[in-house]
Design a protein that fits this description.
single chain; 256 residues; alpha+beta; Alpha-Beta Plaits; four-stranded antiparallel β-sheet; 4 strands
């Protein structure tokens, strides 16, 4: 007959196992990284120092290379700018040479212009009193009343019209109308008319001319000319010429 029983030694072993399990459960967890473990530097100090020096040298070399690259880039830019500026200077110099040649070619132009201006001023002064007598006589012929005709015509004009007075009292009085109005010249007519009304109509036609003023008859007499058959009257008339009769062909233009 077999009997089962626990011996004291077996119980002791079980208690030891349970105690070990309890200790295993209560033990702290292992660290998550290897950083918690102690590190051991086995490299000699001389080797580490040499490595640091090597790294410093490499850093300096890299800085020097970068500096050289920057300086090289700046130099290239400056060189390009200098070349561009030199090209512009050369082009400007060439253009200046061409302009100087043109300037030499036309060096006499200012002198010629000054002479031309002086000549124009002299012409304006000499011919400033130019009157188109053909136009004046044509206007008179178109306004001559019926029964009148001109036999002779004589006109006189100031040499210059730069001022209202020539400085010569005799000349100034010569070109002053019978009513005291200053003019630039006079016209003397010799004409024929059938009668006094026709002479008056002739004076009226002269009064309508803006180039004439203050016309009057200084003599009238019966016509004794055998060519006209002794009919009608011969008269003499005087009119003062106004500045409206000037042609202005020789006046100085603006900018001349």
């Amino acid at each position: 007959m077999v009997s089962f029983h626990r011996s004291a030694s077996s119980e002791t072993e079980n208690e030891a196992v349970e105690a070990a399990e309890a200790q295993t459960v209560a033990a702290p967890p292992l660290p998550a990284s290897a950083a918690a473990y102690p590190r051991v530097n086995l490299m000699p100090e001389a080797v580490a120092a040499e490595a640091r020096v090597h790294r410093a040298k490499m850093s300096l070399v890299a800085a020097v290379v970068a500096s050289i690259a920057v300086v090289g880039g700046l130099y290239a830019m400056a060189y390009g700018s200098v070349n561009s500026a030199q090209d512009e200077l050369d082009a400007a110099t060439a253009q200046s040479a061409v302009l100087n040649a043109e300037l030499t070619k036309y060096a006499d132009v200012p002198k010629v212009q000054a002479q031309l201006t002086s000549t124009r001023a002299q012409v304006a002064q000499a011919l400033g009193a130019d009157v188109r007598w053909s136009i004046l006589l044509n206007n008179l012929s178109l306004t001559m009343p019926t029964g009148t005709s001109l036999v002779s015509f004589q006109g006189a004009i100031k040499n210059t019209v730069s001022s209202s007075s020539t400085g010569n009292a005799a000349t100034d009085s010569q070109f002053t109308s019978v009513l005291g109005h200053p003019g630039i010249g006079t016209i003397q007519y010799t004409g024929e008319a059938l009668g006094y009304p026709q002479v008056a109509a002739f004076l009226d036609s002269q009064a309508k001319q803006n180039s004439l003023m203050d016309s009057y008859v200084n003599s009238i007499a019966a016509n004794t000319d055998s060519a006209s058959g002794g009919k009608g009257y011969a008269f003499k008339s005087v009119a003062t010429v106004t500045d409206k009769a000037l042609s202005h062909r020789y006046d100085l233009k603006a900018g001349s």
